[in-house]
Amino acid sequence: MLQLLKAYKIQLLLVLSLLAFYAAFAYDLERSDFIKLITLYAGLFFISFKLIQLLKVDFKTLMVLAILVRLVFLVAIPNLSQDFYRFLWDGRLIAQGLSPYLLTPDAWVQTGNLPVAQANELLNGMGSLSRQHYSNYPPVNQFFFALAGLFAGKSIFGGVVVLRLCIIAADLGVLWLGRKLLKALKLPQHQIFWYMLNPFIVIELTGNLHFEGVMLFFLLAALYLLHSGKWFFSAVLLALSISVKLLPLLMLPLLFQFLIKPDRPSSESQHFWLYLKNNFAQALWRLSRYYVVVLLVFALSFLPFLNSALLEHFTATIALWFQKFEFNASIYYLVRWVGFQVKGYNIIETAGKILPLVVIGILALLGFLRKNSTTIQLFGVLLLGSTAYFMLSTTVHPWYIATPLLLSVFTRFRFALVWSFVVILSYSAYKPEGVEENLWLVALEYLILTGFMIWEFVKNQKAAAF
């Protein structure tokens, strides 16, 4: 009895400490105070995963705790990211019946007609980089921004609360679907809390208002429906996921084998290429119908904003991420260093064109050659594909890692958990006078990550086929 009482006291102390740490993170932290940031983050990581370990058989308590830590941020203005100012700007334009894709914020200033409330506050908040570019957020993402514009069109604080409630709702959807899928795959259900109670997710999504969580809700729903054999609704939800963030577009080639597999297993289906050869027409139909629905629904999501300039402005802005912007990269920074030695200047424009082609090649190889006819195998391939993409990207903001982290929950690989911890080192770039990366810390981040990945792949080499 005394031991049980002592255990409860320890758990209560950990919970109170967790909430106190989150409160400090939300209301008493400057982004440029890196020592305080990383200390709080390390403490949150330790406490969170200790609680998961202690309470892994008590799903309801962990669920309540996941909700509580998000509510800590409910009325906090994001202190690690300024992106939400652009979200509110776009949403208020839509609420006024204006397209966020037609003019840059700076172009609106030049017209002398600022069409939204608190325009100057939003412009100053989003910063000069965002102001000079067209919006790069797809239509479904814009829908959530529009909700903030409709319900809180004259209050930045109110807009933040609306956006945050949307993100929290999506996280609860991930919790619900994740538990169902883990149960269906006969995996431990508490593993979903590696995502839900991960401080990285709570801070970057609920705290900083990044919409990766909404994208992942639609993606996970699509994969769950695909697992259940409901291909049409899966395709629709995958299209919605792409229309929040474009990343799931890269996953289409990775679905190749899973989409083609027969509904009823047979001895022939154990040999995928033999099955494909003998049932080519049926396989082609399964593949094409899914891809057509995905691409059609995604294209239709742009209809409310359709005009002659939409495609030009949207694609030009997306291209900037590959050929102009660079942050927290890994392989690309090595390529850039070689470029400086050989060419004497930054070769990002050339590398930004070649690296995406390399990514496409890797995704094609994974989709065609790596066995992924079961749901667990599919999650493994999606994890490897998304990891390859980010390892070859020129820009890897911390919140991007949410995708491999969630996918890893349904596999036997844990390197994404390590990544979600060490990615905090990228915040060392933010200083009071501006942004300047510490490449030694970037190198440390990726050395730890790749070291763990290599160790894990070697350790699981016999089970690497999932």
Shape: globular
Percent of residues in beta strands: under 5%
Classification by helices and strands? mainly alpha
Q: Write down the Rg.
A: 23 Å
Which features characterize this protein?
466 residues; mainly alpha; 1% strand
What does this structure look like?
The chain has 466 residues and is an all-alpha fold. The chain contains 22 helices and 2 strands. The protein has helices spanning 2-27, 34-55, 59-71, 83-95, 105-111, 119-131, 139-151, 156-184, 193-196, 199-207, 212-227, 231-242, 256-260, 272-278, 280-300, 310-323, 331-342, 348-369, 375-391, 402-408, 415-422, 439-459, and strands at residues 430-431, 434-435. The protein has a two-stranded antiparallel sheet. A hairpin with a 2-residue loop joins strand 1 and strand 2 (434-435). The model has no long low-confidence stretch (mean pLDDT 90).
Task: Set out the fold topology.
Layout lengths: L1 H26 L6 H22 L3 H13 L11 H13 L9 H7 L7 H13 L7 H13 L4 H29 L8 H4 L2 H9 L4 H16 L3 H12 L13 H5 L11 H7 L1 H21 L9 H14 L7 H12 L5 H22 L5 H17 L10 H7 L6 H8 L7 E2 L2 E2 L3 H21 L7
Antiparallel strand pairs: 1-2
Helix pairs in contact: 1-2, 4-6, 4-7, 7-8, 8-11, 11-12, 12-15, 18-19, 19-20, 20-21, 21-22
